[in-house]
Amino acid sequence: MRIFAALCVIAGLCTAAHAEKRIFIIANNADGYGVDRCLASGASCGAAVATAYCQSRAFVKAASFRKIDREEITGGVPSTNGTAARDEFVAIECLR
Predict the structure, then answer these.
(1) 0.85 exceeded by the pTM?
(2) CB 35: neighbour CB atoms within 10 A?
(3) Which end of the chain has fewer beta carbons closer than 10 Å to its terminal beta carbon, N or C?
């Protein structure tokens, strides 16, 4: 019985270690999410906005979110609409 319990615990840890994570880079002025008001500014609504963004992409929740500089982005830089906030981006780490 102890061996069975130990295997269950180990299997649970292995499953948790393989949880899918993805980081999304979005422009500060992304329409419809309140990124500029909540995430980029650090307002208290940030966690709810980040989770809503993750859930809209079939993830369960947001693990973290933060403002990032353009220089931190590797690969393609998200397009913006030319507003004053065009060079500001937010990274949201989503978990599945």
Answers:
(1) no
(2) 26
(3) N
